[in-house]
TrEMBL record:
It comes from Flectobacillus rivi. It is an enzyme of class 2 (transferase). This is Glycosyltransferase. Its EC number is 2.4.-.-. SUPFAM superfamilies: Nucleotide-diphospho-sugar transferases (SSF53448). The lineage of its organism: Bacteria, Pseudomonadati, Bacteroidota, Cytophagia, Cytophagales. InterPro entries: Glyco_trans_2-like, Nucleotide-diphossugar_trans.
C-alpha cells in the first residue's frame, strides 16, 4: 500500500514538474524577449527596509544612481529599523552624489519595528505612483527600474515580481543555495504566468501605491513577521487575479547575498516556513503537504529497498521519475539566471533536497527563530 502511494505521488509530481518546465520554456526561454515600449513618465518610490546594513547599502545606492530612468521621477526611502551600526552615516555620506532625493525614516520614532511596519510607513510617506521594493543587501542592474515601470504601464500590472538570485562567490555552499532558491523562484514565476500566483520575493517586487492602499496593505497578517511579499500578493491577486506579472527579463534580476553558513541558512528558512500554516488558499497548503509527503517517502525509499519492500527496478524508476523532470525544469531556470555552470550540481541538490524538505516541514510547526538579531515566536 505504502509503495503504491509513493509511486502515485512521484508520478503526479513528475507531471507537475514537467508542466512547470513547459511553462518556463514557452514563456521565458523561448518567449518574447522585448517589452512594449511606453512613456517613461511614472513617478517611482524605491523602498528599502534596512537593519544594520552599513556594509551593503552603499553598493545598492550606487546601483540606483546608475539607473536608466529619469532621476526627476525617482525617490528612495530608506526605513531604518533600529540599526546599531553606522548605516545612517553611510547613507548620509552618499546623499549628495546620487542625483535623486534619499529620505531616511527611523522606526524608533514611531515606537515600532519589523519589515512590515517599515514598508507600511514607507508607503505612507512615498510620493511615487509606483512602489518598488528591494533589500539593503541587494545589487540591481541599470535597467531594473525601467523594466519594472515598463511592465507596470505596458501590462497594467497590479503587482510585478522579479527574479532573485545569489551573488557568486566561488563556494559550493553558495552554488547549492542558488540551485535550491532557483527552484522556488522558478516555480513561483510559472504559477504567476498561468494566473495562479503563490510565491514571490520581497527583494524584487513592485506595485502601485493605490493598490497597496486599496487592499489595506498588511492588515490581517501584520502579526506574522514574515510574508511582507506573499501575503500582499495573495490579497492583490484576489482582486486582480490576471494582473500579477513576473518580470521574465534578465535586466530585472536582483542579486543578493547567500547565507554565510548553515546556522543562518536554517534561521532564514525557518523564517520562511513560519508562514506556511497561515496561508488561506487551500491549494497552496495542499501542495506543501503533498511535497512534504513525497520527500518523506523518498527518504524512506532506501530503507524499503533494503527490506525488499521495493524492488531494485522500482527504486531506480522512483528516483528517475522524480529527478529527470526536476533537471529539465531547473536547467533552463539556472540558465536564465546566468548560472549554466551550476547545472552539473543539480543531481547533488536532488539527493539532499528530501532531507531539506522534511527538516523544514517539521520545523514549520515549531515556533521560534532568530533573524537580524531578534528572536521571533
Amino acid at each position: 500500500m505504502l509503495i503504491n502511494i509513493l509511486l502515485f505521488l512521484v508520478a503526479i509530481y513528475a507531471l507537475f514538474t514537467f508542466t512547470l518546465a513547459g511553462i518556463w520554456l514557452k514563456k521565458v526561454t523561448f518567449g518574447k524577449r522585448f517589452m512594449r515600449k511606453v512613456p517613461k513618465d511614472t513617478t517611482i518610490s524605491v523602498l528599502v527596509a534596512a537593519r544594520n546594513e552599513a556594509l551593503n547599502i552603499p553598493y545598492l545606492l550606487r546601483d540606483l544612481a546608475k539607473q536608466r530612468y529619469p532621476k526627476t521621477l525617482l525617490e528612495v526611502i530608506i526605513i531604518n529599523d533600529h540599526s546599531t551600526d553606522d548605516s545612517v552615516f553611510q547613507i548620509e555620506n552618499l546623499r549628495n552624489e546620487l542625483g535623486f532625493p534619499v529620505h531616511i525614516i527611523h522606526l524608533e520614532e514611531f515606537d515600532i519595528r519589523g519589515k512590515k511596519n517599515a514598508i507600511k510607513i514607507g508607503v505612507q510617506k512615498a510620493q511615487g505612483e509606483l512602489i518598488v521594493c528591494t533589500d539593503a543587501d541587494c545589487r540591481v542592474g541599470e535597467f531594473w527600474l525601467l523594466g519594472m515601470q515598463q511592465l507596470y504601464k505596458g501590462q497594467n500590472a497590479k503587482l510585478i515580481s522579479g527574479g532573485v538570485t545569489f551573488i557568486p562567490n566561488g563556494r559550493l555552499w553558495t552554488v547549492l543555495q542558488s540551485i535550491e532558491f532557483a527552484s522556488l523562484v522558478g516555480s513561483g514565476a510559472c504559477a504567476m504566468m498561468i494566473g495562479k500566483p503563490n510565491m514571490c520575493n520581497g527583494a524584487n517586487i513592485a506595485y502601485p501605491k493605490a493598490v497597496f492602499e486599496e487592499v489595506n496593505g498588511f492588515d490581517g497578517n501584520e502579526h506574522i513577521a514574515s510574508g511582507d511579499d506573499e501575503f500582499l500578493m495573495h490579497k492583490i491577486a484576489e482582486k486582480y487575479p490576471n494582473q500579477i506579472v513576473f518580470a521574465h527579463y534578465q535586466p530585472n534580476i536582483v542579486f543578493t547575498q547567500s547565507q554565510e553558513n548553515l546556522r543562518t541558512f536554517v534561521q532564514q528558512r525557518k523564517r520562511w516556513a513560519s508562514k506556511w500554516n497561515h496561508y488561506k488558499d487551500w491549494k497552496v497548503t495542499f501542495l506543501a503537504i503533498a511535497i512534504f509527503t513525497l520527500n518523506f517517502g523518498m527518504l524512506l525509499s532506501p530503507i524499503l529497498w533494503l527490506r525488499n519492500d521495493l524492488t531494485t527496478s522500482q527504486f531506480m524508476v522512483l528516483w528517475l521519475v522524480r529527478c529527470l523532470p526536476e533537471y529539465l525544469f531547473l536547467a533552463p531556470v539556472l540558465s536564465f539566471f546566468k548560472k549554466s555552470s551550476y547545472i552539473k550540481y543539480i543531481p547533488l541538490v536532488q539527493v539532499l533536497y528530501p532531507f531539506y524538505v522534511v527538516f523544514f516541514g517539521i520545523s514549520a510547526w515549531k515556533k521560534g527563530y532568530v533573524w537580524k538579531g531578534r528572536r521571533h515566536f
